[in-house]
Amino acid sequence: QVLFCNSAATGGGLLFALSLADPLLALYASMGTAVAHAVSAGARLDSSARADGLASYNGCLVGCAFSVFLPMAGVGPMGVPLATAVGAAASPFVAAVLGPSMGRVPQWTLAFNAVALCALLHARPLVGATAPAPATAWELASAPLRGVSQIFVADSATCGAAVLAVVAATYSPACAGALLVGSATGSAVGALVGADSAEIAHGLWGFNPALTSLAVAVFFTPTRQSAALAVGGAAATAVAFGAAKAVCGSFAAPALTVPFCAVATMCYLLAGRMPGLALAAAPHSPERNRADADR
Predict the structure, then answer these.
(1) Gap between the Cα atoms of 275 and 229, Å rounded
(2) Which has the closest alpha carbon to 185: 228, 154, 225?
(3) What is the rounded radius of gyration, in angstroms, for the C-alpha atoms of the chain?
(4) CB–CB of 145/161 below 8 Å?
(5) The model's pTM
(6) pLDDT tens-digit series, residues 118-164
(7) Which residue of 75, 154, 193, 225 is most buried, as measured by CB atoms within 10 A?
(8) H helices, E strands: number in the chain
(9) Hey, CA dihedral for 52, 55, 60, 61, is it positive or negative?
(10) CA distances from 28 to 58, 82, 206 (A)
(11) Please, are residues 28 and 80 in contact by the beta-carbon 8 Å criterion?
(12) Spatial separation of the C-alpha atoms in residues 75 and 67, rounded to whole Å
């Protein structure tokens, strides 16, 4: 459900894709997912949300983020799994609190951001971070793939390609296309605004735009206008990332997916306010949304 795919097969394939980048990352993603699911069941939170994976995807992202950023802050090998368990356990309760306040707008990854940033603003993992070497031409060319992998805090073109292949094969080719287009758009915007070439090459300008593009593809009925919104929203998300990165960077913390949450909400609220922008009756994928609209 991190990628809005309500499919166990897709989830299993994505864990395999993560293992191509870092088996430990995949392990923490699994741990965060399992803990969040178990806590949601134990607390008897929304059972339908739990069955669809909506109670545990934030826990998955907590595991991904903590596995990468906490060791950078000097947290030891015993502290990372403990922090992952505590953070993942908190995520379904945060989501339950956020739900009523969001109205008809999806929660996106707000619960993940709330939980993870509380820890990372304290840990300050980016203190003393050194600038990476300038990017090569190949690294820049593969930036959209790395941007897809960075959704899970992985820095691997191979992982990004595998994520796209899994989504296309098990869920929706159009969703995979939306991810790639969004990541490429964000990378291009980063280049246009003069971002550091290494940041672009490592996918940091691509992952938030990829999520925004995918959100529009999943929640809107496919039209020319919604396609334009997906690309425009991805570009706006890249600009928002530049601002959020500067703010969070001053606290030596990453911006995570805050830019995606902000811009995706604005895109969602445009539904019905402009010609050609309508929410899908039962959001799934562009293919299914189009079929439902044609009935």
Answers:
(1) 12
(2) 228
(3) 18
(4) yes
(5) 0.94
(6) 999 999 998 977 777 788 888 899 999 999 999 999 999 999 999 99
(7) 154
(8) 15, 0
(9) positive
(10) 12, 11, 23
(11) yes
(12) 10
Residue type, 242: G
- For CA atoms 25, 129, 181, 143, give the dihedral sign: negative
Gap between the Cα atoms of 20 and 168, Å rounded: 18
DSSP run (H or E) holding 242: helix 224-249
**What's the CA gap between 129 and 150, in Å, rounded?**
18
CB 11 within 8 A of CB 64: no
Question: Could you write out the DSSP letters of every residue in 244-264?
Answer: HHHHHHTTT---TTHHHHHHH
The per-residue DSSP string of 127-160 comes to: TTPPPPPPPPHHHHHTHHHHHHHGGGT---HHHH
What CA–CA distance (Å, rounded) separates 234 from 284? 20
Say how many C-beta atoms besides its own lie within 10 A of residue 221's C-beta.
Answer: 20
Q: Which pLDDT tens digit goes with each residue over 240-291?
A: 999 999 999 999 999 999 999 999 999 999 998 989 999 999 999 999 999 8
Name the DSSP letter for residue 132.
P
Residues 108 and 263 sit within 8 Å (Cβ to Cβ): no
5: tokens are 């795919």
